[in-house]
Amino acid sequence: MTATPSPALLTSLVFALALLASLALKYWLASRQTRAVARHRSAVPAEFAASIDLAIHQRAADYTIARLRVGLLELALAGVVLLLWTLLGGLDALNGVLMNLVGPRPLLQPLALLVAFTVINALIDLPLSLYQTFVIEQRFGFNKMTFRLWLADLLKSTLVGVVIGVPLAAGVLWLMQATGEWWWLWTWGAWAAFSLLMLVIYPTVIAPLFNQFQPLQDESLKDRVTQLMARCGFAAKGLFVMDGSRRSAHANAYFTGFGAAKRVVFFDTLLNQLTPPEVEAVLAHELGHFKHKHIVKRIAGMFAASLIGLALLGWLAQQPWFYAGLGVTPNLPPAMGGAVPNHALALLLFMLAVPLFTFFLSPLMAQLSRKHEFEADAYAATQANAQDLSNALVKLYKDNASTLTPDALYVRFYYSHPPARERIARMGARVQPV
Predict the structure, then answer these.
(1) Which helix (H) or strand (E) holds 206?
(2) By CB count within 10 A, which of 83, 85, 177, 395 is most buried?
(3) Rounded distance, CA 6 to CA 18, Å?
(4) Which residue has the higher pLDDT, 25 or 432?
(5) Residue 333's pLDDT is what?
């Protein structure tokens, strides 16, 4: 008679298979994208030939391939680190070390585990992050940061993380321990409230720590933008220009805030690259997201997904095989109650394991995002000029070195925005010399 595998062993096997499958799929998709971009490097797509020089097209291809190669290194490193944390016992060992250092304290020890895990992961990611910024971005002319500015940003973000993240983590752990079997529902409510609060305070409290935001000074552009927002029924607290050029040559524009705290923010690089009608068209696209309630839908979807995830975690946290199958001791020592689950371990294991499985849902999420982009483009074409939006897109693709020849399957998994030729064709516009 064949023995039935234990639940813990089955958990280990399923986890290992999911890890191998996700790594293999990601490597395959990256190789497809690399081949597609390299194959079309020698010629600009016919519809863009009048607006994009071959040298610019080849720079975009080289930039895309360089980033893909770094991405493969990041992927390999992430896979090794995930195995070390889980099946090879790293998280269990860290938990044991902190148990000896901090002692069996129901709140302090789990909090120390969360903080230590976050710090170690950040240190592991640091070298590739530096390489991405000061080698890849520097080589292609995008990085504008000095090492001193990079270090200042790191210190500021660390301080913000400590001031906000540590109390939040402590509150979550307290709720997990103090509110019984329905802790996941209380935790979800607290997290949802915190997320909405951050939408309000981020634009005025946190973002100014890293960038300068000046009111838009160009009166003609301000009038054009104000009239557009009035036509669209959108009220904002202000129009601001952000010093994006201080860190990067990439351009962007976005809405930030929530409710009465909404702001329109333009990167200074965007204003330097686009004409006023093109800026208006880009903003009309962003207003299309507002008009179609895409942001509200995404927030609602995020809240629904987090509720399902926390409910699942609430069940898994009570299952010894969940811990044992992922390489950690399932229960706290007798001094802490014996059979009481270690909520920090449960939370970390869940955060480590879930992305392996949700990655296979990426095409669905990416497709929904691209659908929203098409809807926003269509709205922009009714409120501004579709040709101006097309011209702006071409300029942004050119200046950001975005490839015009992506692999179709790679797009389905990773692209939140449709490729340029699809967007322009859907709008019924033409690619003009810019």
Answers:
(1) none
(2) 85
(3) 18
(4) 25
(5) 46
Can you tell me the distance from the alpha carbon of 412 to that of 407, in angstroms, rounded to the nearest whole number? 9
In the chain the first and final C-alpha atoms are separated, in Å, by: 74
DSSP class of 48 = G
- Rounded to the nearest 5 percent, the helix, strand and coil shares of the chain are 75, 5, 20
Secondary element (H or E) of residue 240: strand 239-242
Cα distance between residue 324 and residue 13, in whole Å: 12
Strand arrangement of the beta sheet that strand 239-242 belongs to: 213-215, 239-242, 263-267, 253-256
Three-point CA angle 316, 322, 324, nearest 5°: 150
CA dihedral 330, 332, 333, 337 (to 10 degrees): -130
Return the structure tokens found at 189. Answer: 């409510």
Torsion-angle region of residue 211: left (phi > 0), alpha (psi -120 to 50) or beta? beta
CA 55-58-62 angle, to 5 degrees, is: 135
Amino acid identity, position 287: L
Q: How much is the pTM? A: 0.89
CA distances from 376 to 178, 257, 259, 385 (A): 45, 19, 20, 13
| Rounded-to-integer distance, Cα 381 and Cα 427, Å | 7
CA angle at residue 112 from 106 to 352, to 5 degrees? 100
pLDDT tens digits, 283-329: 999 899 988 999 889 999 999 999 999 999 999 988 889 999 999 98
377 annotated active-site: yes
Question: What SS3 class is residue 103?
Answer: coil
> Catalytic one among 377, 388, 399, 407?
377
Catalytic residue among 278, 280, 286, 399: 286
Query: CA–CA separation, 116 vs 169, rounded Å?
Result: 12
